[in-house]
Fold Glutathione import ATP-binding protein GsiA.
Amino acid sequence: MNDNALLTVKDLRVSFSAKRGKTVAVKDLSFSLSIGECVALVGESGSGKSVTAMTLLGLTLFNGGQVEQGQITFQRRDGVSVSLLQQSERQWENLRGDQIAMIFQEPMTSLNPLFTVGEQIAEVLRQHRGISNKQAKAQAITLLERVRIPQAETRYAQYPHEISGGMRQRVAIAMALACAPRLLIADEPTTALDVTVQAQILDLIQDIARESQMAVLFITHDMGVVAQVADRVIVMRHGEKVEEQPVASLFSHPQAAYTRQLLDAVPRLGDMRGMASPRGFGEFAPSSKVIQSSLRPLLDVRHLSARFPVHKGLLQRHVANVHAVEDVSFSISAGETLALVGESGSGKSTTGRAVLQLIQAQSGSVELEGQELRTLSGGRLQARRRDMQIIFQDPYAALDPRLRVFDQLAEPLRIHGMVKESELPARLHALLARVELPAEFLTRYPHEMSGGQRQRLCIARALTLAPKIIIADEPVSALDVSIQAQVINLMIELQRDLGLSYLFISHDMAVVERISHRVAVMCRGRIVEIGPRENIFASPQHPYTQALLAAVPEADPARRRTVSPKATQLATPVYPKNHRQEVSHYREVSPGHRVLVNTF
């Protein structure tokens, strides 16, 4: 243990009591953290990472936890070492936000919906720095600019619900960094961010840590991020520390079997070089057959455009349109996966919802097996939707918390009248077995399942009607790395066995390389490059594609990125109501590999 450490944790034990008995969330944990050092705390959900962070902030009691034993010593800015477990609430108010700050994983839980984002940052500055409202506002705007938020003065006056999830996370990061704390606890701070923004935020945290000699406790399941930022790594499992090593040693010579399992589940760019079809993780990973192009694709999208009206003034006149999707064309064959990649605001999710007819496109065609979907309505559209399903990014939000698993899975079958009530149990047992969930889960509620299990349930629900194509909208971005690997393997196996087609929407380029046959890259509502997966990854032609790939953190400390990626401006294009956009023009680089030549 380091005698000169900023933070020292010794024999920490935290438990929670419930009707089912006591659960020990953290068991005899010890570690230290020095000034200017970044220590990564890694492990799967339930390993005790976040409970450790909440205990360091004095918030365990508020969450129903109890510190049974241990010591936590922190060195304040004035050089005095204090016991954090013996601080009064008044003393904690002076420490939190000023000397110890935290970036939470879900920004909506840390932002107050009743106040503008700028006012929430300014409040931290006023409370701990005692400055005027004018000075606090000026510093808050500077902080918003520092975390790469465009039009910072305008964003200052907006509420959390008026900005995107990625932008909310940047606001939370700005708030945590406002007072240049001595210790920053970052709990999955980049999980919801696009790859280029993630790279910029990681560089920003590192720069501020160097400038102010700030220590960082970085909680994550992304081993690429760990390799990029950490000096030391602590691996946790079931509340216990299983391994602690310098980052280079951990990646090159992991000692614990669990650490090796985590590293083996990390998707790495280049792992798929020379492979013609998707391949899962593990020695006996399933693989899909090579897709042969047919005369008529399963799904054919042509010149699709989707716009949203902008209303202004007292009478809320329609003055402009947000061009979310503009002149998008692609096709997907039976049994094929087309990955749609790009940053927030690029139009990926809007494209998927327009294909499913969940939102109305303004122009273009969407044909499923030669039938135009945009002309269907009512019962005809509902009947056709049996062949199209969606898996959402957040499985908890996609499930009804009031219904047991049995009713969640049975509902689509009942709506479409496909199975008699007496046949439901057998059908649902088979569905759960297909996604490797035990039959007793049918009596559970969503909150009684882990994140990975909930996502498997969402996949099972998508399979209930035996669809031909599934739109998968960021289905693994919120999952731990080993659970992510299991879900990817499951999706590839289902494709092999059932002949499913996927439109796989993601910003994780390493996952996309693992699961896709072809890749389409979107930027500002348009596809800027599309082609076979190997062509896109081995020879990207468009500058935006090159920027996306360059920003991916490699799970190798010896190959850390030394140059910050160029900032990309992806503000959603807003044009006057009667504005007419140009038609997209492409240059064919090789068979099936096309690059946009227009500049917008």
